[in-house]
Amino acid sequence: MDNSGYRKWNDNSEDVPRGHWACWEHWRYKSLAKLAPVVVLGLWVLVLSILLSKASKERGELLDHQDLLKANASKQATTLEVLQKKVGSCRTSCSEAQAQLQTTQAELGVAQKTLLEQGNALSELRERVTKDVAQACRDHEDIRSELLRALESAKLGNHTCEPCPTSWMPFEGSCYLFSDTQVKWEAAQKSCVDAGAHLVIVGGLEEQTFLTANTRGFGYWLGLKAVRHQGKIQSYEWVDGVQLNFSHWNVGEPNDSRGVENCIMMLRTGLWNDAPCDNENDNWICEKRRKC
């Protein structure tokens, strides 16, 4: 191929090919060479514009968030201040309450000590009164017995008394019958009444000793019953209406087992025990005054 019409293309004008096509190529190259920096610059401007726009938007959002955080921080600070005031007030109230509680505890301790001392004094007083009442009741029974004997003796103008009926045993102006059969308490009392007597009333230790010495290995009904109020035993009363003042209970008695033990019987040992009144396994003891 004939390359004589062309030269190597370089920066010198002498190297540009000749002819119309060569001129066009040369102009286009120079145009592209001038346009390339413009295009690159335009692209950079576009990229920078986008980045700046995005940065501006993010900055605005950050500023909004910053304002929101500041507002929240202000609210939190206000809330914290209120809470601190409440905590301070609560601490003050707690301190006052604690001081008051300590004072109350001290006063309660003094009151408990005083109450304990008063309770001990009351117990001692109750014990003394109980003993005095028991002694007074025994003295009353002794005086009553002596008075009855004196009155009966005065009627006849002498000190002689009729002997006790057959099978009855004498003791201190009274006659006693120890039964050989067993019946319920009510039947025992009726049997005594039919004989002009009543179930035995034990007035003291001497009479109790007499009764114990004359038992024959049986249990015996006494003339003593429980007085109940609203299902609970309030006291014990003899058949003549006199309240119980002397007693000779067995250990652990009376216990009112199952809430039905209203009648009192004497064990073979002489000690007393409460039992159901419909128990048919006990004998009985009648008592009546001797005629003088």
TrEMBL record:
SMART domains: CLECT
UniProt key word Disulfide bond: yes
Ranges annotated as spanning the membrane: 35-53
InterPro entries: C-type_lectin-like, C-type_lectin-like/link_sf, C-type_lectin/snaclec_domain, C-type_lectin_CS, CTDL_fold
Sequence ranges assigned to domain C-type lectin in this UniProt record: 171-278
A Pfam family hit: Lectin_C
MF terms in GO: carbohydrate binding
Keywords: Disulfide bond, Lectin, Membrane, Transmembrane, Transmembrane helix
Coiled coil: none
Keyword Transmembrane: yes
This protein's name: C-type lectin domain family 4 member G
